[in-house]
Design brief:
The complex is a heterodimer of chains A (278) and B (440). Chain A has 278 residues and is an all-alpha fold. Chain A has helices spanning 2-7, 12-27, 35-55, 65-92, 94-99, 106-136, 155-158, 161-185, 188-202, 214-221, 224-236, 246-277. Chain A is elongated, with a radius of gyration of 20 Å. With 440 residues, chain B is α/β, with parallel strands linked by helices. Chain B folds into two domains: 3-244, Rossmann fold (3-Layer(aba) Sandwich), CATH 3.40.50.300; 286-413, abc- transporter (atp binding component) like domain (Coagulation Factor XIII, Chain A, domain 1), CATH 2.70.50. Chain B is 25% helix and 32% strand. Chain B contains eight helices and 18 strands. In chain B, the strands form four sheets. Chain B has a six-stranded mixed β-sheet, sandwiched between helices. In chain B, strands 10, 12, 14, 15, 17 and 18 form a six-stranded mixed β-sheet that branches. In chain B, strands 2-1-4 form a three-stranded antiparallel β-sheet. Chain B is elongated, with a radius of gyration of 29 Å. The two termini of chain B are 25 Å apart. Classes of the chains: A mainly alpha (278), B alpha/beta (440). The A-B interface holds A 13-14, 17-18, 21, 24-25, 28-29, 93, 95-102, 182, 185-188, 266, 269-270, 272-273, 275-277 and B 14-15, 17, 21-22, 24-25, 34-35, 38, 75, 78-82, 94, 96, 98-99, 102-103, 105, 107-108, 112, 115-116, 119-121, 124-125, 148.
């Protein structure tokens, strides 16, 4: 396993070209092309905003809600699309694994990275939102004074953003390796996964605030993605200048290294059976 | 010289999994033994104890029937699968032409695919840039290289795939039957390229059904049969052994098929019998119809067999072999008006040859009880293919006693892959200014 893991950096050229191919191929032939990288999350955001603002009860304690939602939704899309694609990626890339000497772990890694690029392309949208709310400034209250700021960005918090992204990358890659290898042996994994992800989404504080129901908080803490979502929200959304979630994040980071290694180990164990089973 | 490829006591057992997966997954999760639980229900030995040494710079052909383990052996050498037992050692960079263009993405251009495919095969970006023009020229795709690959014809697709793989410039080239596809011209080009490889002292391992190619091209041939090595050595000798083995098996298969068709049409049906196409000649070229048997049954053909030079019954002959056709007859009562006819038809139903005793001006006198009729051919000058026989006994006017249409089959094999149905004896002569010689 360690030997194979050490080989991984040698494939970076391959991974790089495959990610580029994935991105190019995805929008080839569509009229709007790369616009969809921005368009997809925006439209998704629109749907959720409308639903939660007008149809379901508005949680007035969170303003502006759309920005809050976006801070959790964007990383979640990266996470869930990566896992869903990983469940198919070895089977659809079966030709490569069966007919060419090809490091199979590259395929789920490429899925994760391609989706990460989409995620990164969504960040400017958040920046635009932030800029907009900072520019219009805080509300004027009834007594004529200024209310608290809606949003605020602090450099001390922002430096943690790459760390959050890195932790998510490790966690997602580890899970993607597990999912892709298992999906070859048990095709059921794909269906189980897509349902599990739907549940997981609602069990993560993305559409609601982490502290919304204190009695549920204990349970939410068991969910690793809670800490990623809360980290993104604290850094990008909540105006307080203290990244209070940092210890959770670091603990999750340590756990993610474990998840990645365990995922790689499992993938490595199943590697030889892949070419024969697909 | 160090061997380029060495297989030592290699076995490969494929595992088949039955449909118990869901239960397995559930119980595996419950018992938390997912990895150890991935046990197969059934195993299949694709290769059993195969040892093989390919010296650097030589070309070896792997031959054998479908499912004999040739492709598995190639995949083991390529490193795509691992042997269950034994060791596989390969020295040098390997390029496997197992599936051309595996990993091309249909949506992106040929140019981008060349780069990605090259990287997959182990080239660096710079190496590909250097070889890019060669790759495109060889594939003859200069005009289309910026089009998405999905617009390519399957020929273009393969040309590009071959071109990338061959330009990886490996030390060991593995070729799996890929040359069977693609048009004639390109196949020749590929063969030239592979021959060029050979000249430059590289090692080639070739899996093919084209025995000709093995004889012409390889220094050595290895015959795999049912996952075991049956023979290795001089290509001509190994190919001959293989061909005669295949012939024996085909023979057994054809005689089994003959028994079946004759049993199936064992009852004569005079009432609904179609008359022979033209009275008097049992073997007139007729529209190819299904096999069948008809006639009054006064005289019956109870057995038809073909015999080789040694007098053994056979169904497979080499072109040019002597063949004897024997019929055993039974007359219910003595007849004085009779004639025997035969016809040979090719697979398309065209009559290759037909004759009968009337045409050849025999005068029937009497036929009674059990009798035998033989027709001997000094040499059957037919091209390779499967042929079907009509045999008949009928009146001089052509009213059938017993007519067997297409009930008997034989096969002609030939080293020369000439075309048509008939091979007139011939030889070539060349004047002084023609320099030409038989291929070694």
């Amino acid at each position: 396993m360690w030997h194979n893991l050490a080989q991984l950096p040698r494939y970076r050229g391959l991974i790089q070209s495959l990610v580029a191919r994935e991105l190019k191929a995805r929008y080839r032939g569509s009229v709007l092309g790369v616009f969809w990288s921005f368009g997809n999350p925006l439209l998704l955001l629109l749907v959720y905003s409308v639903v939660f603002k007008y149809f379901l009860q508005d949680r007035g304690d969170i303003q502006p809600y759309a920005l809050f939602l976006f801070c959790g939704l964007l990383p979640w899309t990266w996470f869930s699309s990566s896992l869903n694609e990983s469940a198919n990626v070895l089977v659809s890339g079966g030709n490569l694994i069966k007919k060419v000497l090809f490091p199979a772990e590259v395929l789920p890694i490429v899925s994760v990275l391609a989706n990460m690029v989409h995620f990164l392309m969504g960040l400017p949208i958040i920046a635009a939102f932030l800029g907009y709310y900072m520019w219009i400034g805080p509300d004027t209250l009834e007594d004529g004074t200024l209310g608290p700021p809606r949003v605020a960005i602090h450099l001390a918090e922002l430096v943690w953003l790459p760390v959050v992204i890195l932790v998510q990358l490790l966690l997602t890659t580890g899970l993607a390796l597990v999912v892709s290898a298992l999906a070859v042996h048990f095709r059921d994994v794909r269906d189980i996964l897509s349902n599990l992800l739907t549940f997981w989404f609602f069990a993560t504080p993305i559409i609601y605030w982490w502290g919304w129901r204190p009695e549920l908080k204990v349970w939410l803490d068991f969910n690793p993605f809670t800490h990623l979502a809360v980290s993104y929200q604290e850094i990008l959304f909540f105006p307080e200048n203290a990244f209070g979630h940092v210890w959770w994040l670091l603990a999750l980071g340590a756990a993610s290294i474990g998840v990645f290694l365990a995922g790689y180990w499992l993938f490595d164990r199943l590697r030889d059976s892949l070419a024969e089973t697909i | 010289m160090t061997p380029a490829i060495e297989l030592a006591g290699v076995s490969k057992i494929y595992q088949r999994f039955n449909r118990r997966h869901f239960a397995t997954l559930k119980s595996a999760l419950l018992r938390r033994s997912l990895v150890t639980d991935l046990r197969p229900d059934e195993t299949f030995a694709a290769l059993t104890d195969v040892s093989l040494t390919v010296p650097a710079g030589s070309s070896v052909g792997l031959i054998g029937r479908n499912g004999s383990g040739k492709s598995t052996a190639l995949k083991l050498v390529a490193g795509i699968t691992k042997p269950t037992a034994g060791t596989v050692t390969v020295h040098g960079r390997v390029s496997a032409l197992i599936e051309l263009g595996a990993g091309f993405h249909p949506e992106i251009s040929g140019r981008e695919n060349v780069f990605i495919n090259g990287i997959m095969l182990g080239l660096s970006r710079r190496e590909i840039e250097r070889r890019f023009d060669d790759i495109v020229d060889f594939a003859e795709l200069a005009d289309f290289i910026d089009e998405p690959v999905k617009t390519y014809s399957s020929g273009m697709y393969m040309r590009l795939g071959f071109s990338v793989a061959i330009n990886v410039d490996p030390d060991v080239l593995l070729v799996d039957e890929v040359l069977a596809v693609g048009d004639e011209g390109f196949t020749h080009k590929c063969l030239d390229k592979i021959a060029d490889f050979k000249r430059r002292g590289k090692t080639v391992l070739l899996v093919t059904h084209s025995l000709n190619l093995v004889e012409r091209f390889c220094d050595e041939a290895v015959w795999l049969d049912g996952g075991r090595k049956r023979a290795e050595g001089d290509p001509r000798r190994v190919v001959d052994m293989y061909v005669s083995n295949v012939a024996q098996q085909e023979d057994a298969f054809l005689s089994a098929a003959d028994v079946k068709t004759i049993e199936g049409s064992a009852t004569l049906a005079p009432a609904q019998a179609p008359p022979p196409p033209v009275p008097g000649v049992a073997t007139t070229p007729a529209p190819a119809t299904a096999e069948g048997r008809w006639g009054s049954g006064v005289v019956k053909i109870v057995e038809v067999a073909l015999f080789d030079a040694a007098g053994h019954p056979a169904h497979v002959f080499q072109s040019g072999d002597p063949v004897r056709l024997g019929m055993r007859l039974q007359a219910a009562h003595p007849v004085t008006d009779f004639a025997f006819g035969i016809g040979i038809f090719n697979a398309e139903g065209a009559c290759v040859y037909g004759t009968n005793t009337e045409i050849e001006e025999f005068e029937p006198i009497t036929l009674e009880g059990d009798a035998n009729v033989d027709v001997s051919f000094d040499s059957v000058e037919l091209t390779e293919g499967t042929y079907r026989l009509d045999v008949a006994v009928h009146t001089r006017e052509g009213v059938p006693y017993d007519y067997h249409r297409f009930l008997h089959t034989f096969r002609i094999k030939s080293r020369t892959k000439d075309v048509g149905v008939y091979r007139p004896k011939h030889h070539w002569a060349f004047s002084a200014n023609v320099r030409i010689r038989p291929r070694a």
